[in-house]
Each structure stands twice: as C-alpha cells, then as structure tokens.
Amino acid sequence: MTAFAIDPLTAGAVVLATAATDAVYVLFTAAVVARRRVPAASWSSLWYLLSSLAVISYTENWIYVCFAAVGSWIGAFASITLLHRPPARPPPGSAPE
Hints:
This protein has 97 residues and is mostly helical. 70% of the residues lie in helices and 0% in strands. The mean pLDDT is 75.
C-alpha cells in the first residue's frame, strides 16, 4: 500500500470518532459551565475514552484506558466541586434574609 492510499473504512471511522469526541466535549463544557459535577465528570470520562486511541497505540494494552477514564472522572468532579463553593457573603444588592 502506498503512502497516499486512503482506506475508506478507516477514513469513515476517523470522521465518526472525531464527531463523537467533539460532541462529547461540547456536552462536557456545557456541564462545566453549568457547574453540574456528576454530568461534567461523566462527560469527561466518556470524552477521554473516545480520545484514548493514542493511549492504546503507545501502551498496546487497552486496560490503561480504563484507569485514564477513572482519573478523568475524578479530576472533573474535583474541579467542579472546588468551583462550586457557595459565596462567603451574598452578592451586593441582594435582598437581606
């Protein structure tokens, strides 16, 4: 096979995988902006699973992808937890209790 030969099946798989990864990234970002911890952590984990082809390629062992996904979930959950702290005092102009 020459360097310029394109396998239609591989090309289609790349397009689908990229579309799925980007869609999940958008959902992850929306969950982060909304400060929804569990959805953000879950989308992060799925996003990492979809983009883990490099991990499989480098390690040649798919089990590391599971560890990476768990780490991704924990990282996103912890980040949103830290960002979701209630304010120390009410914002200016809010009604007194």
